[in-house]
Please model this.
Amino acid sequence: MINTFHSSYNPPPVPPRAGYKKAQPSGNTPLVKFLSVMLLLLMTLTFGGFLYLFQKVNGELQWVYQEDTATLKKLQQCVNGNRAQECQILIEKVNTVMGKVCIYVKTFFSKFTGGPSRNGPAAHMVFLSEHNEKYKESEALRSNSLLWDKERSLLQGVQITVKRDRLTIQTPGVYFIYSQVTFSRRATKNPLKQTINRSGPKNENKELLKSFCTLHENTEEMCTASSAGVFRLEKDQQVYVTVTDRSLVNKKYCWFGLFKL
Model:
């Protein structure tokens, strides 16, 4: 017999089978919670480590340059006062600071020029003593150009002229040029000036840098004029230093140099 009975009600649910367990909805499992905590802890440790290193490096730099900063402050006070002997000692310390600055500048610019070049062109010139025979024989004595002692100076990939007053570039490129001239004798004209000049094969001269200082009358103090800058130099161009009056120059605290970046 066919059952033709129809009803609008839903059939009753099927009773669950023995041992059946309903599936749990997806959510945060213990593994996900553990990984989240570890990631948060790693980010916290990383940030804290960078902060610690920054504070430590900053403190060490302040300690390293504390003496240099104090020296520069004393030099400023010395210039305003009248203590020649103390000024002389401070100038020697400032020379050391300038050397550190030159090394830092070379390292900084080397990052933009493919790294440091240990064998690149460089020169550091020491003033030629008046007692040296080469000083008396030099034709540059008729000018205000400073003369340099080739035997006691550093020359690497750079030539010095026969007159011993100019450096001739052999390799073109960008150079860091620096000079310092100290005056220690009474001057009739102020301010005193030192200039870094550049000349080419066709004798075209150009002032690259200049600086000034003043010597007061009836004092035994010294004044120092320093210059530094970055310039592009071509092959066979020459660089040299001139002063207002060479007879006023203190030979112990004068130098001139350059190096290729």
Remarks:
- Strands lie at 122-127, 148-156, 158-160, 166-169, 173-183, 192-199, 205-213, 223-233, 238-243, 255-260.
- The helical segments are 30-64, 66-80, 84-110, 133-137.
- The first strand starts at residue 122 and ends at 127.
